[in-house]
Amino acid sequence: MKIGGHAYRTIWPEDDGARVAIIDQTKLPHRFEVVHLTTVDEAARAILTMQVRGAPLIGVTAAYGVALAMRVDASDEALAAAVAFLAKQRPTAVNLRWALEEMRRHLAPLEPGKRADAAFAHAGLLADQDVAMCKAIGEHGLQIIHEIAARKKPGEAVNVLTHCNAGWLACVDWGTATSPMYQAHDAGIALHVWVDETRPRNQGAALTAFELGSHGVPHTLIVDNAGGHLMQRGAVDLVIVGTDRVTASGDVANKIGTYLKALAAKDTGVPFYVALPQSTIDWTLEDGFVIPIEERSGDEVLRLSGRTADGAVHLFDIAPEGCVAANPAFDVTPARLVTGFITERGICAASRAGLLALYPERDAAA
Amino acid sequence: MKIGGHAYRTIWPEDDGARVAIIDQTKLPHRFEVVHLTTVDEAARAILTMQVRGAPLIGVTAAYGVALAMRVDASDEALAAAVAFLAKQRPTAVNLRWALEEMRRHLAPLEPGKRADAAFAHAGLLADQDVAMCKAIGEHGLQIIHEIAARKKPGEAVNVLTHCNAGWLACVDWGTATSPMYQAHDAGIALHVWVDETRPRNQGAALTAFELGSHGVPHTLIVDNAGGHLMQRGAVDLVIVGTDRVTASGDVANKIGTYLKALAAKDTGVPFYVALPQSTIDWTLEDGFVIPIEERSGDEVLRLSGRTADGAVHLFDIAPEGCVAANPAFDVTPARLVTGFITERGICAASRAGLLALYPERDAAA
Question: ipTM of the predicted structure?
Fold first, then answer.
C-alpha cells in the first residue's frame, strides 16, 4: 500500500542478494525507517523485538532469515539450526513454524551449494503468495461490506471496528483484516474505521492508524475500552480482526482484548469476522484453550513510547514507581462468538465443518 | 487511608475556614501534591479538570464549592448561581447533583448571614457521611470476600479485578469498590488485586495502583484488554467496580470499558459486583441507555502524561500526527450482567426489586 504516494511492501530483498529490507515498525508512527537484515541473528532479532510483527510478515521474515543463514553455511546442520532458532522467537505464531517448515521442506533435498539462491527465491515466492492471499481475502471480505453498504442511506458510511494491526504492515501487502477495507475504500464505498489503540504495544494507534491514514481511509482512534459502548449505540456495523492461530474447531487466538470485542459484538448483534490466510489454521489443535499464550514483559505495560512537543521520541513511565505489571499477549476467542472466517478461498462458519467446506483436502487427509 | 504512613482524607477544610485542601489527582502517580481551593471557580475547575474525580468526592467538592461561594456572597441569587454553575461541570455524575441539591435544601431556609458557616459545616457532614457509607459498603463486601477465601486452599489469595478508580481517592476515605479490599487486607485475608489501567486517563495505573501500593495491598497492573483472558483462565475470583450512576432498574453507568468486563465475567461465571452509596442511585431513571454519556476531548486518547528516566513529567503523543480520536467517557452495563450491588445497607440484586428491598422508603415514595 502507499506511504507518501509511494507503493511499498513491508519486506523485500535488495538486488545484492545479501540484504533484506524491512520497515522498522517499532519506530512507527513517529518515524518511517527502512533497515536491512544481513544475518539470521538480525532476522531473529527483528522478529523478537517486533521490528516486524503480524503472523504473515513474521513467516516471510523467518523465510528470509533462513536464506540469510544459507549464505553463510548451507549445510544440513546449519539449515536445521536456523529453522530451530527462528521458530522459538515467537511461540504463539503458528505461521512462523509453517513458513520455516516450508523452507526446510524445499531446501533439504537440494545440494548445499544451491540452497542459498533457492532459499532467497523461495522466500520471495512465499512473499508473493502472501500478497495474492491477502488480495483474495480482501475480495471476499469486500462482499460483506458491499451488502452492508447497500442497506445504508446515501452518504452514510459503513463503520468497521478493528483491533490491533492485521494490516498490510502485518503482512507483505494489503493486510488480512484491512484488505476488505482498502478494497472497499478503493472501490468508492463510504467507509470509516474505528481503530482500537490496542494496549500495551499500541499497534492500533501506532500502525493501523498510520497505515489507514497513509492510504487515505477515514478512521478514528479509540481506546480499547470504547468498542463495546460504540456497538451498544449502533455505531459499529462490522468487526474484522486478524488472528495468530485458528484451531480446527474455529477457536481464535489473537491479540489480547479480541475476546472482549467478540463478546460485545455477540451481545449487540454486530457481525464479528476474523480474516486469515490458510497458513494460520492449526489443523492439529481442536481446543483453543490449549494454545500457549506468550507472557511478555510487564515493562510493555508500564512504559510507553511517545513524542514530546519538540518531536523527540522517549520512553515514558505511566505507573507508580515499583509497580508490577502482567502482560499476557494474546487471548482466545471461542468459535461460538465468531460470525465467520474470511479466507483467501471465501467466507465460512467458524467451525470444523465450515473450515472443511473451504479446505476439503484436509478432510481427505484426516 | 495511608500514604507514607500518614492517614489522609482526599478533601478537608483548613482551620482558617477560607480554604479547602485537596490532593491534586492529575499529578498522581508521579507527584503527591496538596492544593487549596479558595473560590467556587477553583472548586468547579478542580471538578472539570479532574483534580478531584470519583462520584462521592465530586459531590463533596461541589458542596465545599458552595461553601466557598457563600463566603463571598450568600444571597439567594448567589446560592442558585453556585449550584447551577457547579452542576454543569460533569453532566454524567448524579452524585454531583445530589450533593448540590442537599446543600441548597439545607441553606435556602437560612438567613444569608448564617449560610457560609452552615455551608462549611454541612459540607463537612456530607464528607463524614461518605466516610461512614464507604466503611459500611466495605463491611458488606467483606462478607463476599470471606466466603471466597473460605473455599481457597491455605495460602491461596483471593483475586479481585477492578476497573478505573472507585478507591478512597475517588471518595473521602475507604473508597467504594476498594473498601471491601482494604477491609479484607486489614483483616489478614490473602488478597491480590488485578488493576485495569483504564485508558484513556489511566486512573487504574495512576490512582488505584498508587493507593493500593501506598496501603500495602498486593496488586498487579494489567491493560484493559487482559481481564477477559484472566477470567477465562480462572485467575479472577471476583470483579468489584464502582459506578457514576445506577438506574432504578439496576443498569450501571461507569467508566468506559466496564461493560466489556461485565460481559467477560458473565461469560466465564465470575461474580461481578458494583459497589455504590445510595446517592448514586438515580430513582428517576429506568433505562440506563438514556443516560447522557460525556464525550471528552480526543486529546486524552492521543496524549498521555508520563515521566522520563530523569523523573521529569511530560505530555507525550502516541498516535500519528493529525490522527483523530473519539473519547466516550462512560458506558452502560445492563443490569442482567451484574451479580449484585454492594451498598451501605447491604447486598442486593441489580434490579428494582433488589434495590427496593434495601431502600423500601423509595417504594412508599413511588
Answer: 0.91
